[in-house]
Design goal:
single chain, 643 residues, alpha+beta, 18 helices, Heterokaryon incompatibility protein-domain-containing protein, HET
């Protein structure tokens, strides 16, 4: 139930009881695995059950999610430590709700980017128990990375008051992280030879009073051009964008009143981090020029891959909403959610080893639960970007995600992030780990499965215009061709894995037996010749395989079982409910799969369409997939053209 931690002492610390009893043995032991457990404290003041494994916590092992440990606490000790500024005792005091008796509480630890829970173990319904939320992050070692802003005058660094001061504080730290990444991370090295965008926003002045104008890249005489991108949700049609009629005036200067707040906040961040150039789609593409759109869409992979970083707006739902007010809420706003920090120190070296965060309102929100993950176009923008700077709501520290790690501006190291935030560098590392000196199978299988994961995640997102489905992943396709070599790309499928991919089944089992499925030809005609992987005008796939015609009768069921020459078959239809006009289907046998050493024939179901090719052959459309009760179909091979 909701409670609020509404008093902040001058200096937030962690008392000896919390550090030694609650945190040392569970979280900090990973810093020094040889450190002994200190569970010898009395049962009045120490733990009486131990299940938390810090290595699993910081290593983000899925099996660790939900692990719980119970503690007992004396109320006098709790109140004294809370009054002296112990951030965790303050949390416990509020969870306790003012009761004055000794009590037990439990800690349930979640994945590192989610909020772990503190619960009063007093009797009562689960729905009425008081719960607080906290997170623990490992801290980047100052010996590995010189955080001038983090290691000197920490209290001043953390107590910056105004939004501008707090942005400046975080921006300087993020710039240090970015520079360290580009200089020292082998997996994040800048790529050369990439196409530059045609135009950029030149940003100057201060974050309070920025000056912005559009500039043609051909007119920039700086080499190399270091620019950042902005990834955000449009939300609705933007009233002011670059058009043919506005282009000349925007090259002179853009009135701040014409820039939507989310983009204006992106400009403020770029200036604060010390960058002069920013790429924003609404202004750097002439929106009413078809040729300009085609040219820039063809460069998407290069634009995001070649950027120093991409500012990723995790809170704003629209271009007009802005995100800095959510990232740095005013202290006097009653509805604000604050995160308060205290350092956890390694008991041996006394160096900062981790950061403890407590939420003031104790609400259970995932920092990666963001509207930007719901939009189709933003999917490739994160995947293509070598570095992403994420700005969260509720005062949560911004963080840098690169191919090496994800780290907050205060040094808190997030040991993992959701799959939707991976970069191409991370995908390459995942594929590389599957390489074997004896066989190429593991590497090829890893590529195929990563592509299926990408398509699955992308398919969950929404697009304002259905026609954008293929254009919105063109950049991914371009990079995939360069990095992974999976053959010819055919509208979402790759020639080397086409037979298995046509099934679109998860999980995908091993194929076995003789492959009787043959691709005769595939023709994909794009809407624009210069965008071969973009919007599709038409497509035809001609295959040759064993097939059998099945009469469905009047069945309206989405799943149909019937008998064929080789035995029983179960058909799952793609659409729900099943199309009423589909009375019979051809079952195209692709291969046998082997789930748990029990082989089954599998394939796709197609139905004839009224349209015919100019040369006269019948055309078919996919309507579902089928699984045989045993081995696959038998009989002669036939040719089918699928549209």
């Amino acid at each position: 139930m909701g409670i609020t931690l509404d008093t902040t002492p001058p200096s937030l610390v962690l008392c000896d009881w919390c550090r030694t009893t609650v945190f040392d043995d569970h979280f900090l032991a990973v810093i020094d695995p040889s450190k002994k457990d200190t569970a010898g404290l009395s049962t009045d003041e120490g733990p009486f059950e131990t299940t938390i494994n810090p290595v699993a916590y910081f290593g983000n092992r899925d099996a660790f999610d939900g692990s719980t440990r119970n503690f007992r606490q004396k109320i006098e000790l709790l109140l004294r430590n809370a009054s002296q500024g112990c951030i965790f005792c303050m949390l416990l005091e509020n969870v306790r709700g003012g009761q004055r008796t000794d009590f037990t509480f439990s800690i349930t630890v979640d994945t590192p980017w989610k909020w772990s829970r503190v619960t009063d173990d007093a009797d009562g319904d689960e729905d009425t128990k008081r719960i607080g939320y906290f997170r623990v992050y490992k801290t980047v070692s100052p010996t590995k990375l010189a955080f001038s802003e983090l290691t000197s005058s920490k209290s001043a660094w953390r107590n910056a008051s105004s939004r501008t001061q707090r942005l400046a504080r975080d921006a300087r730290a993020l710039r240090v992280l970015i520079d360290d990444c580009t200089a020292n991370h082998p997996n994040c090295k800048p790529r050369e030879g990439l196409d530059l965008p045609s135009m950029l926003l030149h940003v100057s002045g201060t974050s309070i009073s920025p000056t912005v104008r559009l500039v043609k890249v051909s007119d920039i005489d700086v080499v190399p051009i270091r620019y950042v991108c902005l990834s955000y949700c449009w939300g609705e049609t933007q009233p002011k964008v670059t058009t043919t009629s506005r282009l000349d005036s925007y090259l002179v200067g853009i009135d701040m009143a014409e820039i939507p707040e989310t983009i204006l906040d992106g400009i403020r961040v770029a200036i604060s981090m010390g960058y002069q150039y920013l790429w924003v789609d609404a202004f750097c593409i002439v929106q009413d020029s078809g040729p300009d759109k085609v040219t820039e869409l063809g460069k998407m992979a290069s634009i995001y891959s070649g950027a120093v970083c991409t500012i990723y707006v995790m809170s704003a739902k629209t271009a007009t909403e802005g995100f800095l007010r959510q990232a740095y809420p005013d202290g006097n706003e009653n509805q604000s959610i604050h995160t308060w920090h205290a350092d956890l120190y390694d008991g041996t070296s006394q160096a900062p080893a981790a950061v403890l965060e407590v939420r003031s309102d104790f609400s259970h929100e995932d920092i990666f639960d963001s509207p930007i993950f719901e939009r189709g176009w933003t999917f490739q923008e994160a995947l293509l970007s070598p570095r992403v700077v994420m700005f969260f709501p509720h005062g949560q520290r911004p963080a840098l995600r690169c191919s090496t790690h994800t780290i907050q501006s205060d040094g808190g190291l997030v040991t993992a992030h959701p799959k939707s935030l991976v970069s191409f560098g991370e995908l390459e590392q995942a594929v590389e780990r599957e390489k074997s000196p004896w066989s190429d199978y593991g590497c090829q299988a890893a590529k195929a499965e990563e592509w299926v994961t990408i398509v699955k995640q992308y398919s969950l997102r929404s697009l304002t215009y259905e026609a954008d489905k293929m254009p919105a992943i063109m950049g991914i396709v371009s990079e995939w061709e360069t990095r992974f070599e999976q053959g010819t790309y055919w509208a979402g499928l790759w020639s080397t894995t086409l037979a298995k991919d046509l099934i679109w089944k998860v999980p995908r089992e091993y194929f076995e037996g003789k492959d009787s499925f043959e691709v005769v030809s595939c023709e994909v005609i794009p809407v624009h010749e210069d965008l071969p992987h973009g919007a599709i005008k038409s497509a035809q796939l001609t295959v040759k395989c064993i097939a059998e015609l099945v009469d469905l009768g009047d069945s309206d069921f989405e799943n149909v079982s019937c008998t064929v020459s080789s035995g029983s078959v179960s058909i799952d239809f793609d659409d729900s409910p099943k199309p009423r006009d589909v009375r019979e289907v051809w079952l195209l046998y692709i291969n046998d799969e082997e789930p748990y050493n029990n082989s089954h024939g599998i394939g796709i179901a197609v139905a004839e369409v009224d349209q015919t090719d100019v040369d006269g052959p019948k055309l078919y459309k996919r309507v579902g997939r089928f699984v045989c009760g045993g081995y696959g179909l038998e009989g002669p091979r036939r040719t089918f053209t699928i549209i």
